Structures are given as C-alpha cells and as structure tokens.
Amino acid sequence: MANLSNPTIIRIARESGEEALASPIDLAERVRTLRKERGWTLEQAAQAAGLARSTLSKIENGQMSPTYDGLKKLAEGLGISVPQLFTPPKNAAPGGRMTTTLHGQGESHVTTTYEHELLAGGLTRKAMLPYRARIHARKFEDFDGWVRHDGEEFLYVLTGQIRLFTEFYAPIDMKRGDSAYYDASMGHNVVSLSPEDATILWVTSLSG
C-alpha cells in the first residue's frame, strides 16, 4: 500500500536543513556573561566560587587560565557543570525567526490514510514539525503496519472523533479538545470514528 507516513513527512522537513558548526568558546567572555546574567558583582561571584576577587577578574579578562580545580569551583559557584562553561548558550540572543501559514495554505501531502498539511514551511532547521491532518482511515487495517519514527509527538483533536492506536496501550477514543503526547518510536496509528473525516493537529519533534 502506498502510504506517506510520518517518517516520510519528517524526511521532507529535514531535507533543507543544514548543520551549523559550533564556534570555539571564549572562556573569559563566557564566565563574564554567566556572572552578569545572575546580576552578581565580581565580589559576589568570587565568593560563591570560593575564589579571590583578583583571580576571577583575571579569568574574565583573559589574563589567567584556571586550573581544573578552579574550573570546578567556578562551575559550582555559578550552579552549572564544568562542560557548560564551554557550551554556548542555546539562545544567546533573540533570533527573531518567525513564519505564518494562512488557513489552507500549508503544503499538502495526500495519502490513502491521511491528508497532511505541513505548517510553518517557511522555516528551515526547525526543532518541531507542526502539521494539520485530515484522517481518511476508518480502521486499523487501512494501514500497512505501524507508523513509527524518532522523536516525540503531540496530538490534538480539532474536529470529529478519532481512535488512537498505540503499540503498548489499549486503543483510546478521543474527541474535539482531547490530546495525547507519546514517544513516536512506539508504533501508532489514528483512524476517524466520525462519519466525516476527523482533523487533528500534530506536532512532532525533529531531534534525533
């Protein structure tokens, strides 16, 4: 059976993504930034880390490379792990990324079981894949086995009634306003119980 399942949808979403190479971390700047994020003076930060104020000042100005013991004290004082001293913040500054999808203008992918409308198609390298789905399937046998893929998934029923089948749990009947969150590597399928096609919002993580 030709069936465009979630793994294929995820592959489509990832095709235009690019991996960014991490830049080396300036330890002096990183320590100074972490201190200022906490609203601490040099004196307060040095006291929290058990270091002399002059030592911390030299570290922040790049005039001294701390020993491993010094790094441990710094990390403990700042309430983080040693590796986090060398890890850039995930949101160092607001990126300002945004896209909108007007009703009915998402990219459509039709299958025998679902009709997917991909949302937020204007953004690449997304952490999540949101899409609206119209459920054509009426029974489990309409599928060619389980749908399963990497990541986690959130499902929200928009209209109609559905039955959520999962590999390790009993089927669950759901109506408008009901939701589910599950490990997407577990087999899962959705069928419509309504005379009309039910519609749901799916949000899938793209990590992994």
Short description:
With 208 residues, the chain is α+β, with helices and mostly antiparallel strands. The chain has six helices and nine strands; from the N terminus they run H-H-H-H-H-H-E-E-E-E-E-E-E-E-E.
Question: Which series of helices and strands comes N to C?
Answer: HHHHHHEEEEEEEEE
SS class = alpha+beta
How much of the residues is beta strand, in percent? Answer: 25-35%
Shape designation: elongated
Count of individual helical segments: 6
Mean pLDDT: 86
Helix content: 10-25%
Numbering strands along the chain, what is their spatial order in the largest sheet? 1-2-3-9-4-7
Low-pLDDT stretches:
18-22
Intertermini distance: 27 Å
Beta strands, count = 9
Q: What is the gyration radius calculated from CA atoms?
A: 24 Å
The largest β sheet comes out as: 6 strands, antiparallel
How would you explain this protein's 3D organization?
- With 208 residues, the protein is α+β, with helices and mostly antiparallel strands.
- 25% of the residues lie in helices and 27% in strands.
- The protein contains 6 helices and 9 strands, in the order ααααααβββββββββ.
- The chain has helices at residues 6-14, 27-37, 42-49, 53-60, 68-78, 82-85, and strands at residues 107-110, 114-118, 128-135, 152-159, 161-166, 169-175, 179-183, 188-192, 198-205.
- The strands form 2 sheets. The protein has a 6-stranded antiparallel sheet with strand order 1-2-3-9-4-7. A 3-stranded antiparallel sheet has the order 6-5-8, with no helix packed on it.
- A hairpin with a 2-residue loop joins strand 5 and strand 6.
- Helix 3 (42-49) packs across helix 4 (53-60).
- The longest helix is centred in the first third of the chain and has 11 residues, at 27-37.
- The radius of gyration is 24 Å and the shape is elongated.
